[in-house]
Amino acid sequence: MGIELEKFIFFTILVHMVCGQFYAYNDDPYNLNNLGSRISAQVQSQVAPLQGLGERINAQVQRNLQPLQSRLGELDGLGDRISAQVHKDLEPVRAIELNFKMRDGVGGTTIVTHQPSGRQFIYNNYKPFICKGTVDIKTGTCSGDLVPFEITSSSPQTDWCYLRSYSLINNQICIGLKGVSVTSFNNQITCKGVGDSPTFTSSLDDYKKLCSEVSASSEYRYIPDVNSPQHVAIPNQNAHVKCENRDKNLCIFHENNSLLNTYSTSNGFQYYSTGNNVNINVGGTY
């Protein structure tokens, strides 16, 4: 009986020792069992705050950039808007150029009728012609011969009233058939025609007496040649190109003879010019 009891006590102690070692073994933090899983769990725990960090940073950057993007949006197309505004601001100047082209029949045909004389001319690319027949006011064609307008020594002086290429310097007018080159030095005026073409000089007062009953105003009828790259489109996109009619490919406008409304100067310096091929050189003391 004593031996059996000793065996039981020994067995109990042995089981206790083995179980104690087992639990101690599993509670040991240095135990290598499942080490990979524990490391992975620890890493996941440390990395968890970083999840979606890139998206959060990008969202914050986008929020910070919104005011700047709004301002940059205002710059979109800025160059085009500036160009359009400059083009619009220059329209009145451009309209003057287009009006001169229409007056001289550039890129088409212009019928010019002077009043009160009723004298009629056809202009093609700056050159005046006379129709030896009837002019079709819708097409600008001549039923007879179309001959260049020339002024000779035997021509009446009133023929000079129909030309609009001239210069005015200190009450002295110089008119040229094909343009003029004028030099003024100490009030001495020299008038020379382009290519030695004839010229006409007169005081402003004498010009008014000569021309007021011949060419006080002019009617212009411009018919563009749409196949010419030099033509002025009618109707025109430039709002400052004024046509008194609304017909397509026909522009009608009137002009007064500005020289008849120009006043003489008793002192001081005055010069004015208009038309094609007009050059002025001024020197001396005034």
TrEMBL record:
Superkingdom field: Eukaryota
Which keywords label this protein? Answer: Signal
Record keywords: Signal included? yes
Q: What residue stretch is flagged as signal peptide?
A: 1-20
UniProt protein name: Uncharacterized protein LOC115884888
